[in-house]
Design a protein that fits this description.
This protein is mainly α and 459 residues long. The chain is 76% helix and 0% strand. The protein has one domain. It is globular.
């Protein structure tokens, strides 16, 4: 049983105890995320300064790419779960499992390429007419979320960090080359094509390098563990658990639509330039998830521990850090954005500020979602619970958006999304507490989830 404390910690110690319970890998991942965000913001600034229309086309193109990636992230998360669920069992070979999911990623990417080519051929509107560029990179882009599942399940952050930073760095280099080529050119269509080409080619290059390194790393791991591996430890096949993989894909697409459907509503009612300014508000608001995503990734393997006490304790500790940090950071972010966005990106992006203010309350509340989702998927093996929560948020925000976006534009989209996030995360807490067997007050009373030294997971 969890070790109960005779005396509740003071409020001053609450945040300190929660942070101390997290592995130091969270700090390394946070540093990588900060660098990645800095690179990503540089990309956003470079694109946004070409005008809201170019920024709008870029934002929608990236949303389509994200849908493609999230649809097939089940392969990488399946591999991560196989690695993290080996606690107490004989080690199994990682290389055959990695090879299997990488082959599947390439095949699925080729199938996606055919569909993207068809959409590009049929459409004459930006950015959909340029999806042929995404079709060329699709077989490679799926390699990163698949290969990094190996390290996610092992709790090894540095290879994941390198892959995360390398992608925007290579894209930024490509964009710098594109601007050099386009000096003096005023045609927005040509600028959009070069921007999208730099994006796809940079990410594809990093994907191939990441997959090759992962294969070599898995081979080295298997060689080292060969003397202690169980003789009957047969590697699992993702195909034997394809419903789990497919469910994660569907769930992740629903989750992505929860974050990005408002972009398409704004485009439908107000056009591409409105999407450009609103997408900057969305990007800025989601900076609040920088720490929460780092914390969740760093403890993902521990949240997947077979013992519910350990998994639930780590989940609650991560949730506390995530929510407290985002609530403190939200007003600071808004103040900085109010000063910086029009100055850095141009006067047109003054229109991003009110939608940003509308988004921030919901984004701050939803910071707990990543850790709760990891508990549903990696510990319970029930990703459909994450999908139900994201679907609830999507339904609320989309229905409200149909009413508010035509009247209030991007501000209406921000209000609708924020309300969807808040109501859905309240439901997510209830689902988690039920499966963890914890009372509601466990969310703010550390003594109720404190583990003894024998129970605590080893780093």
């Amino acid at each position: 049983m969890p070790n109960m404390s005779a005396q509740e910690p003071s409020p001053m110690n609450f945040l300190r105890q929660a942070w101390a319970a997290l592995p130091k890998a969270a700090l390394g991942n946070l540093a990588a995320k900060l660098l990645m965000v800095a690179l990503g913001l540089s990309i956003t600034v470079l694109v946004a300064r070409q005008g809201p229309q170019v920024q709008g086309a870029f934002a929608l193109f990236v949303a389509v790419e994200s849908a493609l990636l999230t649809l097939f992230t089940g392969l990488g998360l399946w591999l991560a779960r196989q690695m993290s669920q080996q606690a107490g069992a004989g080690p199994v070979r990682a290389l055959p499992m990695l090879q299997g999911v990488l082959r599947a990623a390439v095949v699925l990417g080729l199938l996606a390429s055919v569909i993207l080519l068809g959409v590009s051929w049929w459409s004459d509107r930006l950015p959909y007419s340029q999806l042929w560029l995404l079709a060329l990179g699709a077989p490679f882009l799926l390699l990163v979320p698949t290969a990094t599942g190996l390290w996610l399940g092992q709790g090894r952050m540095w290879p994941i960090n390198v892959a995360q930073v390398a992608a925007p760095a290579s894209v930024l280099m490509g964009l710098a080359g594109a601007w050099w080529i386009m000096q003096g050119t005023q045609r927005s269509g040509a600028v959009v094509v070069l921007v999208l080409t730099a994006w796809v080619s940079g990410k594809s290059l990093v994907a191939v390098v990441t997959a090759v390194y992962a294969l070599k790393d898995a081979g080295r791991r298997d060689d080292l563990l060969a003397p202690i591996a169980s003789s009957d430890s047969t590697p699992s096949s993702w195909w034997a658990q394809w419903p789990f993989v497919a469910t994660i894909g569907v769930v992740n697409v629903v989750g992505l639509l929860n974050y990005r459907a408002s972009l398409f509503l704004v485009e439908h009612f107000h056009g591409l330039s409105a999407v450009g300014t609103y997408s900057v508000a969305v990007t800025s608001a989601e900076l609040l998830w920088l720490l929460s995503s780092s914390v969740t990734v760093s403890v993902y393997a521990r949240i997947g521990h077979p013992d519910t006490r350990i998994a639930a304790s780590m989940t609650v500790q991560a949730v506390r850090i995530n929510v407290l940090s985002t609530l403190l950071a939200a007003p600071v972010l808004l103040a900085l954005a109010w000063w910086a966005l029009p100055w850095v990106m141009g006067p047109a992006y003054q229109a991003s500020l009110m939608p940003l203010a509308a988004l921030l309350p919901g984004v701050a509340a939803y910071a707990a979602a990543s850790s709760l989702s990891a508990f549903y998927t990696n510990h319970l093996g029930r990703p459909q619970l994450s999908g139900a929560i994201a679907g609830l948020s999507l339904s609320i925000s989309f229905v409200l958006g149909l009413v508010l976006v035509p009247r209030w534009g991007a501000v209406g989209a921000g209000v609708a999304s924020s309300l969807g996030y808040i109501l859905a995360i309240m439901a997510a807490y209830g689902v988690f507490l039920k499966h963890a067997g914890l009372p509601v007050k466990a969310l703010w009373q550390p003594a109720l989830t404190k583990l003894s030294d024998l129970d605590a997971p080893k780093p």
